């Protein structure tokens, strides 16, 4: 680990390793790196060849940028960009398929960005990296194709702002510059022009090079004498601004004047079996109604791990959640919630009742998850953990009003939002 630590630290200085060197240090943590050479790419979009060739070209293009136009990117941000360039297509071995498009067989890798970020969520936690760097790498990998799409679709401020809550826009720009220059394609000039337009919009929207886009807005609406009212206003203001429901953050003051005075809290757990969700609830949410899918399964089926009557279990849980929210009781939804569509359903339900929604995400490495699971009262099989790791759809801060990331022993790694 000391050797790996020194190597990672060298990325923050001036070391510029090629793909082969990166793989030699990191393939044990990210086994998909070994499959890059056997993962094909479309001959028109990526005439340079397989994913390994492309990734090496992206790294070289990034180093050229870092020594010319982006010399100001140094230290931890340099390290983040290099690792993001190495890992930006990490899920292509999982997602690459051939598909007929307009009568022509093409090679595609649908959703490789978000699947890649989810793949990295537990594995990056094995490395001696600052958690801020872990979050930045996941954001760059998970959203690296969005900048050009925003320009192509002529999206407005809210979409750029929402992206800035999940990824650093300047680092995204430099990563995608390298991504485009690290390939052989017929429309390279067009792709680069799209990125330049993205940069112009980001600068015009004052989202370029900004450390905390949330704080930039919230400082304009700090006017509530009641902390609980301010927490609600802050959470809903950022969400409404990022979804285009308001055009300025100040409009949130009137829009949320009455709702902020009497509301309930909805906490949504998100983590695999053995991550510590129930223990965290016991220590931090005393007095909350707890809706546990495990307990409802035990109530209906006699066993927590019995998967019969899934529809009935979920319906009963939703009924109890609605009742708690309707009565303005604070409530926590205790389940793995590793699928985005499941989380969205509960969050939408909470918003319909005017609740302030906090997502609590548990991010541990795989070995810790397995050890914790074996040592708990209600352990599941190792194959269940493996299945959950495969199915994980990593949550992003924009999915809820407030967002917490929890690590080993309930320690907090990150928080977004105002907590009274």
From TrEMBL:
It holds the Pfam family HD. Residues 53-126 form the HD domain. It comes from the Bacteria. InterPro entries: HD/PDEase_dom, HD_domain, P-loop_NTPase, tRNA_CCA-adding_enzyme. SUPFAM superfamilies: HD-domain/PDEase-like (SSF109604), P-loop containing nucleoside triphosphate hydrolases (SSF52540). This is HD domain-containing protein. Keywords: Nucleotide-binding. The keyword Nucleotide-binding applies. One of its GO terms (molecular function) is nucleotide binding.
């Amino acid at each position: 680990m000391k050797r790996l630590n020194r190597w990672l630290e060298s990325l923050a200085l001036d070391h510029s390793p090629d793909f082969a060197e990166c793989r030699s240090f990191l393939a044990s943590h990210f086994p998909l790196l070994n499959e890059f050479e056997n993962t094909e790419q479309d001959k028109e979009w990526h005439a340079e060849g397989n994913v390994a060739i492309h990734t090496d070209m992206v790294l070289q293009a990034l180093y050229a940028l870092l020594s010319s136009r982006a010399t100001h990117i140094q230290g931890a941000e340099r390290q983040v960009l290099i690792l993001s360039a190495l890992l930006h297509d990490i899920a292509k071995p999982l997602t690459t398929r051939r598909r007929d498009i307009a009568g022509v067989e093409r090679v595609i890798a649908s959703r490789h960005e978000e699947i890649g970020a989810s793949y990295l969520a537990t594995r990056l936690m094995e490395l001696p990296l600052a958690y801020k760097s872990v979050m930045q790498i996941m954001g760059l990998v998970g959203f690296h194709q969005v900048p050009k799409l925003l320009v192509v679709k002529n999206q407005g401020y809210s979409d750029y702002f929402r992206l800035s809550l999940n990824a650093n826009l300047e680092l995204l720009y430099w990563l995608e510059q390298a991504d485009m220059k690290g390939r052989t394609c017929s429309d390279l000039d067009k792709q680069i022009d799209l990125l330049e337009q993205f940069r112009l919009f980001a600068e015009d929207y004052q989202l370029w090079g900004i450390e905390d886009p949330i704080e930039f807005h919230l400082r304009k609406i700090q006017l509530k004498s009641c902390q609980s009212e301010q927490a609600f206003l802050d959470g809903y203001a950022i969400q409404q601004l990022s979804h285009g429901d308001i055009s300025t953050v100040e409009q949130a003051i009137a829009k949320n004047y009455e709702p902020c005075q009497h509301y309930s809290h909805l906490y949504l757990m998100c983590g695999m079996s053995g991550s510590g969700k129930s223990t965290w609830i016991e220590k931090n949410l005393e007095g909350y109604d707890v809706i546990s899918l495990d307990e409802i399964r035990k109530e209906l089926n006699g066993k927590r791990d019995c998967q019969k009557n899934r529809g009935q279990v979920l319906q009963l849980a939703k009924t109890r959640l609605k009742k708690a929210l309707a009565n303005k009781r604070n409530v926590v939804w205790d389940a793995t919630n590793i699928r985005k569509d499941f989380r969205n359903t509960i969050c939408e339900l909470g918003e319909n009742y005017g609740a302030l929604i906090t997502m609590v995400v548990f991010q541990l490495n795989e070995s810790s998850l397995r050890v914790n699971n074996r040592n708990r009262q209600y352990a599941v099989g190792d194959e269940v953990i493996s299945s959950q790791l495969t199915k994980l759809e990593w949550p992003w801060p924009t999915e809820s009003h407030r967002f917490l990331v929890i690590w080993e022993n309930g320690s907090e790694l990150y928080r977004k939002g105002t907590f009274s």
